[in-house]
Structure to design on (438 residues):
């Protein structure tokens, strides 16, 4: 198994099933398009668009239409003083006032002519849309970084499986070699048992490595919306590492990171909210133009009709609200202050994240070089131990120790590469430069 490419082939069902091939770019694209958390964030962004339309609607004309019909089952009368109709007459007289059938309809147009609150609401909706877009992008970057790390982790675990399988195969070959030598009296029974023990112990280590790999792949599928029973093939080499990134000015980081920009826009939104709370003390002027129709008849016909056109203005202004409006102003001021504090706190955290990513990259790069040299030494020691064990110059325990040292050196080497790639992903997130590529 030594030298096997770091290509993971997982078959969910027995038999020859063609697995779909996923490179890192294709996988990250699938995550952005299918991930459930990002779908929820996209719904929030869509909701912000509707809120923006709703705010704009408050400044547009509103037209309403009403129509109705009544059938009067009983008569409706009006009573008149006879003296009002004929001087000197006494008593009252009643006359039917309603017909059997009544029709009415009205249409009205209303337009807000002056309202500081409406203007602030439109501005706030526009700012909220920007916040929602940036929050979505920040969520996407976090999910993509998590997906990248998981992809690299699967490649690492695939390497661990390769090392475990190679170790088990080597142990099995060595055991069979010891069997042949034992049958010819060249080795002792103890040496044969030690060789068999080494082989038997290697088998569960392979199973454990394969289990860890399967668990990681299940999570990898979940992030990209891939069915658990769908066989996949991850193409890539863990050794393909990007060069160390150049230093980035923190001002550029602030401009690039969507979470920081989202907080900056939220501060603008809170400022607009404060101005809107203050504007609630000001008057609102509304204009109305309307037409009304009414008619009635004892038959199904339009008769005794009335047509009414009218126009009007309505001025509304709060005079005393028991302190409610002032409380709204104070609440908006506190929310603005809290947002400024969150922005300052997040900037400090971003600076620490950036510096930590740089330190981890530097350390991982050093570990890779050290681990590469250790692998070369451990492999040479193992090859010598293999040869000398066959010639009876070293024991099975010495061979086992040499193999364990070689396997551990290989795993340390791949782990150092994974740590570098993980630190690089964190650097991308810290600088706001996460993309759907490798």
């Amino acid at each position: 198994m030594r030298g096997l490419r770091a290509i993971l082939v997982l078959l969910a069902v027995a038999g020859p099933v063609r697995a779909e091939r996923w490179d890192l770019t294709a996988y990250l694209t699938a995550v952005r398009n299918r991930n459930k958390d990002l779908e929820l964030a996209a719904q929030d962004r869509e909701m912000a668009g509707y809120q923006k339309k709703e705010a704009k609607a408050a400044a547009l004309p509103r037209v309403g239409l009403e129509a109705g019909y009544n059938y009067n089952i009983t008569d409706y009368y009006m009573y008149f003083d006879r003296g009002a109709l004929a001087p000197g007459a006494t008593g009252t007289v009643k006359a039917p006032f309603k017909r059997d059938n009544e029709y009415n309809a009205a249409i009205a147009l209303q337009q807000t002519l002056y309202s500081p609150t409406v203007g602030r609401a439109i501005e706030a909706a526009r700012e909220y849309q920007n916040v929602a877009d940036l929050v979505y992008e920040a969520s996407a970057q976090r999910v993509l970084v998590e997906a990248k790390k998981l992809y690299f982790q699967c490649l690492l675990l695939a390497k661990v499986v390769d090392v475990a399988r190679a170790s088990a195969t080597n142990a099995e070959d060595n055991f069979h070699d010891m069997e042949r030598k034992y049958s010819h009296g060249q080795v002792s029974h103890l040496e044969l048992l030690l060789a068999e023990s080494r082989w038997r112990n290697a088998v569960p280590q392979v199973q454990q490595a394969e289990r860890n790999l399967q668990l990681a792949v299940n999570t990898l599928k979940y992030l990209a919306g891939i069915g658990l029973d769908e066989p996949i093939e991850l193409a890539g080499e863990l050794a393909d590492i990007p060069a160390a990134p150049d230093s980035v000015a923190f001002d550029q980081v602030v401009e690039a990171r969507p979470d920081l920009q989202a907080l900056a826009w939220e501060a603008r939104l809170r400022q607009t909210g404060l101005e809107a709370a203050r504007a609630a003390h000001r008057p609102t002027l509304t204009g109305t133009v309307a037409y009304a129709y009414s008619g009635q008849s004892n038959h199904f016909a339009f008769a005794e009709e009335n047509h009414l056109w009218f126009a009007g203005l309505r001025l509304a202004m709060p005079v005393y609200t028991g302190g409610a409006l002032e409380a709204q102003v104070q609440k908006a001021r506190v929310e603005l202050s809290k947002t400024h504090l969150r922005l300052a706190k997040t900037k400090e955290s971003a600076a620490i994240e950036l510096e930590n990513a740089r330190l981890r990259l530097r350390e991982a790069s050093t570990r890779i070089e050290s681990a590469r040299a250790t692998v070369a030494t451990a492999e040479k020691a193992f090859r010598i131990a293999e040869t000398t064990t066959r010639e009876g110059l070293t024991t099975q325990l010495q061979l086992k120790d040499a193999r364990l040292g070689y396997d551990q050196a290989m795993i340390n080497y791949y782990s150092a590469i994974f740590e570098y790639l993980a630190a690089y992903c964190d650097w991308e997130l810290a600088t706001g430069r996460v993309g759907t590529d490798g």
